[in-house]
Amino acid sequence: MRRSISGPTSCRPGPVLCYYRYFLWRFSMLCFTLDFLMESYSWPMLVYMLLICLYPFTSSCAHTFSTMSTKARHVCYFFDYGALSLYSLGCAITYASYVMPDSWVNSWLHQHFVTIAVCNSLFCTSMSCYSRFVELQYPHISKILRTAAFVVPFLFDSIPLFYRLLSCCWGSCSPSEALASHSYHLFFAFLTCFLFASHLPERLAPGRFDYIGHSHQLFHICAVVGTHFQMEAVLTDMSSRKEWLMSHSALPSFLGTLGTLAMGVLLNLGIIGIFSLGLPRTPHQSTSASCGAHPHQE
């Protein structure tokens, strides 16, 4: 029997669930140090922590239940894409509140940053879900669409980071702990994208990385390590820039944080529902192949 080059590890949700537990633990610790209920300045962080707990949990569920049937596989990964899309929205909300460069605060981009991020979130979910409808006939196009669906929100969210890092390279700012953590986050984010697109190292030695060292394992590890550094960087910016931000910009509002999250959830659920209704028109895919799927097929 021919072995899949991606191996059986793609169907194991255990490690992903461990990441969820880590972020849930960090969230629970922050609940004792931050006043998420009464202090509106902390609401963007609340949104962010909820979403970095959500996306590993959703991914774990997708890996667990995707082998039940062909339709279940598609629906599971629709929700996985939706969770990642909402995570990008959570990043934008926190970046707009804590990470935006000083000279950009109250600018047009700052004022519309979250609104554009909502549109990016809808684009991400729509494009990634649509890519499943063409993956059998046009696998390369499906991969390009799915990769673009996640790269576009990431690049937009990272615009403030790119500016701050380039400003420091040009000597117009002093290095800080937050920028160091942001740099590590960007490094692991680019590494995650590379692993997602390249399928290394298993494509060089099919069958040798089925259990240890598979790109999908490395993909999840790099994504979570990058999220860890991102969380630390945002927490540092949130603390170190609090006085300056509170005196130079408006406090985060309920509508702009939790309200935006609720709207994003509803809109993304609507998109997932629409694509789920269209599943009978998709070509059938064997459930045995589902377990050995490449990351870009998820």
Provide an overview of this structure.
Helices cover 70% and strands 0% of the residues. The chain is mostly helical and 298 residues long. Helix 1 (14-33) runs antiparallel to helix 2. The two termini are 23 Å apart.
Give a short synopsis of this structure.
The protein has 298 residues and is an all-alpha fold. The protein has helices at 14-33, 43-65, 70-99, 108-131, 139-157, 159-169, 177-198, 215-240, 242-248, 255-277, 287-291.
Low-confidence spans: pLDDT under 50, at least 5 residues? 1-11, 282-297
Structural class: mainly alpha
Kindly state the mean pLDDT as a whole number? Answer: 88
Query: What is the rounded Rg?
Result: 20 Å
How widely separated are the two ends?
23 Å
Largest sheet: none
Order of helices and strands: HHHHHHHHHHH
So what's the overall shape? globular
β-strand percent reads under 5%
- Give the % helix: over 70%
Number of strands: 0
Q: Count of helices?
A: 11
Task: Lay out the secondary structure.
Layout: H1 14-33, H2 43-65, H3 70-99, H4 108-131, H5 139-157, H6 159-169, H7 177-198, H8 215-240, H9 242-248, H10 255-277, H11 287-291
Helix pairs in contact: 1-2, 2-3, 2-8, 3-4, 3-5, 3-10, 4-5, 4-10, 7-8
Which descriptors apply to this entry?
298 residues; mainly alpha; 11 helices; 70% helix; disordered N terminus; disordered C terminus
